[in-house]
Amino acid sequence: MFACLLKGPPRRSDLLVRPSVRVAPPERNKGLKMVTHSDDGTTHFRFFRPNAANIYVAGDFNEWRPDQLQMKSAGNGYWELKLRLPAGDHRFRYVADGLWYTDFAAFGVEPERFGMVSVLRVPAPTVTLHVEPTAPATRAIAAA
What we know:
Radius of gyration: 22 Å
Largest sheet: 8 strands, antiparallel
Oligomer: single chain
CATH class: Mainly Beta
Order of helices and strands: EHEEEEEEEEEEE
């Protein structure tokens, strides 16, 4: 769907496809929902590959290991994985049956030494403080 397939080892031309980072504003990604974040800090990956037998997520958060973070079939050709990642920008790709795919529906793409990679933005956790009003202070005046 929103993926780019690279067969074989990366070529120099793979790196020259887009020399600059393309990051979409957050409101533009709201309807795509391939990578989302929940309020509890979980990042949810979804990938459509109906005929795949095995799909993994590889990125800078797992040292690009293509066989470590296996996705589970969610039915109808979709695959899912939930992870807790630290806040910040991360790079990743999907690996389906040994072939690497870039998710162009993520928060952007950029060139790396092995081709185009997807950019993932994990927001910092938000802290909400609830302050309850206090009763006004009263002073007791002692009678002399």
